[in-house]
Amino acid sequence: MKRIKIAGIITIGLIIIGFAIINWHNSSVQPDTVLISRDRPITTIAEPVILSDASVVKDLYNDLLSIRQMFPEGGVNCPNDTGIVYHLSFQKGEKKVLEVDARASGCQGIKFSNGKVVRSSSDVKGHAFWLKLGETLGLSDKELAGYTYASELPVVKVSDIQSLQYEIVMFKENNPAPLLPSNAKDKVIIEKITSWMGQAKSEGFDNQVPTQSIPPNFLTIKLTNGSEYRLSPGSNDIVYVQILDPNKTLRLRSPELNTWLWTGREKDVSETAVGESASCEQPPKVLNWNGESYQTQGPDTAFEPGMKLSYVKCDKGKFTIGDGDDGPDHTVVVFSNGDPRTNNDLVFSGKWGLVLYSKVQGKR
Fold this sequence. Notes:
eight-stranded antiparallel sheet, 23% helix
């Protein structure tokens, strides 16, 4: 009989201890604010997020304390874990009431500041907590867990930009002049690029740009705050954005920006208007190419057509960039003068034969 009583007392004692462990916070102390941050910042949201809505704070707090599923000891298989962790700090005035680190994917383990760890993925209150957190932050389930990204790149406005520099990797000598927001023509191009960046779908971070092939060109965006982004085109409409500080690379999916980085910039940066003369039978005396001015050279200057750079069409003496093929209206072909890596001169081939142009130093 005594053994039964002792066993009963022990059992009741363990139950009481168990409830005490689960409800280790004084439920009478209700926090009035919660600070939320993430180990990988949500760039579309200013962090930490400070919530003071009493009903939201109460729901998040009570849902956390009501999760009963303890995290098992030992090795546990938690598939599809993106590694994203949310830190929540509940406060009553200046006093901290509760702090937790909540893993947003896999088994969704939540670690309390006293060391207790619960598994929210298999708990009703755990589901309620994540649903409320997502609604509060304005993120879908997948965005909250990091399977997809609302945007990991801060919104870039034209006013934020100091310059855009297009870099041709193999032929740096032929790099065009930087694009500047103060230039009306440049500003139109910059507005288009920033719009594409803002509309692009983010597909997360890569450790580095794939090295199966060297990208043929880069676009370096310098911001007024000293930050730099380096964009390069990949396959399947992917654009790699290397954020130099901190050094990380983001994948964006943007068909428009990808195409522009590969070939589209030739029209924009080179400018459609190339030159003008009395008629299409005569070459222009001055060229505008890649934002630089070129002038004809004397007939005795030695030159040799090298790499084909572009087609040019002419209408009533106005020469403009062609569409990238040798269509019937493309009456002029532009070549480099020999090796473009060592020579910046241009050769115009048209009805007049061949004409050499050299860059006018210091003039844009």
